[in-house]
Specification:
heterodimer; A: Ubiquitin-like (UB roll); DNA polymerase, domain 1; 5 helices; B: alpha+beta
């Protein structure tokens, strides 16, 4: 049975922030566009549209990816974590709390990408060195902070989460 | 992005049919980190996206001591550098895969895609060439194999015919006392495009301090990744010392024919080709002698 060539809207099922989720996207939509425009998950941002800035970063099957470089149809059957799955206003995650406490954001546009990337880092490397932090976060660009406060926030979060 | 058609075939035969039917506007999708921005920016005119990630051969990664390493065309970089067998036997691939883009790019981008994108500055191609890798291709006329050094033909262009796709890359099993190193020079600390890249693979004799095999390839100094056979041939039979490495580096530098662009000048790139070749050879030697 030959594989169908999809032209119009495609029904997609994925698990987003632990919730089974169904929606329709055209093949040309990126995962970023689907998250923002179809699902109302506007935490992930478009900064560059080509995989350079990390503002759109999400976890896909636990892996850090730029959602602007993934088609929505590729998310079929996948588990996705966005910044909305990293904590809530009422229940900030340690990473979010440390970013606030260290003033590791100003305009906040890059912050969701940094939160998701930091979550992925600390899951893999619970006690990263400064070099490891800077290397891992190299794909997340920030215009406002100069990065030092972000690095401190990540170090504090690692300690708070029992990294050492 | 422009309107697209999308299919995720489950076999090579289906993929070939879809590519043929889509004609010049059909393209295989692997990691998407080059292709999707290119479609979005209308740099490539693509109307049909054929997702290769449901084809088992394209996602396959295995090592056999007799036959060597097989890397499916769509295997992402993180599977390369997290693999203990590749870390042990092909550390040069770990060097390359670890510096393509950043962590999020490496979550999707593949060595096969890096090769098929056919950029002159691709970070994995010089290392694949130095390892003696072969590209296995499938198409309407059947399968064929092409040495990776012959795969790219011009910036963004390669030997794939209409209807063909890259299945996998094959690297021979390294001989004893073999190792490799890939080095790159970039304007920043990370996330940049190579100004110059050098991949070397070096083999020493089992009991003597003599080089028995060497392959050197350069990136970002020619319209395609550049295999420099004379630089490797120069080293065979010599002791792996500073003088030999300097001689090979000079040959590599002489072969480089870079352009000046916004990242660097031709003169700077020529100079770097020599410096990085010498350092990469030293790095490969250290890996051999400390293993």
């Amino acid at each position: 049975m030959p594989t169908e060539l999809k032209t119009g809207k495609v029904a997609i099922h994925a698990t987003i922030n632990t919730e089974p989720t169904d929606w329709l996207s055209e093949p040309r939509e990126t995962l970023l566009e689907a998250l923002r425009d179809r699902l109302g998950l506007t935490g992930s941002k478009e900064g560059c549209g080509n995989g350079n800035c990390g503002a759109c970063a999400v976890l896909m099957e636990g892996r850090l990816v730029n959602s602007c470089c993934v088609l929505a149809v590729e998310a079929e059957g996948a588990s996705i974590t966005t910044v909305e799955g990293c904590g809530t206003p009422e229940g900030l995650s340690p990473i979010q709390r440390c970013f606030l406490e260290e003033a590791a954001l100003q305009c906040g546009f890059c912050t969701p990408g940094f939160i998701v990337a930091t979550k992925a880092l600390l899951e893999k490397t619970p006690n990263p060195t400064e070099d490891e932090i800077r290397w891992w976060l190299a794909g997340n660009l920030c215009r406002c902070t100069g990065y030092d406060k972000i690095v401190r926030a990540v170090q504090n979060a690692a300690a708070a989460m029992g990294g050492n | 992005m422009r309107a697209l058609q999308y299919a995720a075939p489950r076999s090579l035969e289906e993929a070939i049919t879809l590519l043929q039917e889509g004609g010049p506007h059909a393209r295989i999708l692997a990691g998407g980190t080059d292709l999707l921005p290119q479609i979005s920016d209308a740099v490539r005119d693509v109307a049909v996206v054929v997702d290769g990630k449901k084809i088992p051969e394209l996602m396959h990664l295995s090592f056999d001591p007799e036959r060597g390493l097989t890397i499916g065309a769509a295997v992402p970089c993180y599977r390369i550098y997290e693999d203990p067998i590749i870390q042990q036997h092909y550390p040069g691939l770990v060097d390359s895969a670890s510096i393509i883009g950043g962590i999020a790019i490496q979550g999707r981008a593949s060595l096969g895609g890096n090769l098929c994108n056919s950029g002159p500055a691709a970070d994995s191609t010089p290392m694949l060439i130095a390892y003696g890798a072969t590209a296995r291709i499938a198409g309407p006329e059947g399968e064929r194999k092409v040495p990776v050094e012959d795969f790219c033909t011009a910036p963004g262009r390669n030997v794939l015919h209409p209807g063909e796709l890259l299945i996998s890359l094959h690297l021979p099993t390294p001989a004893p006392r073999t190792s490799a190193r890939y080095l790159r020079f970039i304007p920043r600390n990370e996330m940049d495009i190579a100004i110059v890249g050098v991949g070397v693979c070096l083999t020493l004799a089992e009991t003597e301090n003599t080089i028995t095999a060497a392959r050197i390839a350069l990136g970002a100094v020619a319209p395609t990744p550049l295999f420099v056979p004379e630089a490797g041939a120069f080293l065979v039979g010599k002791a792996p010392d500073a003088e030999a490495f300097a001689g090979a580096a000079a040959l590599a530098q002489a072969a480089a024919r870079p352009i000046s662009d916004m990242r660097s000048t031709a003169e700077h790139r020529k100079h770097l080709a020599g410096v990085l070749t010498r350092r990469a050879l030293q790095g490969a030697l250290e890996r051999i002698t400390t293993s």
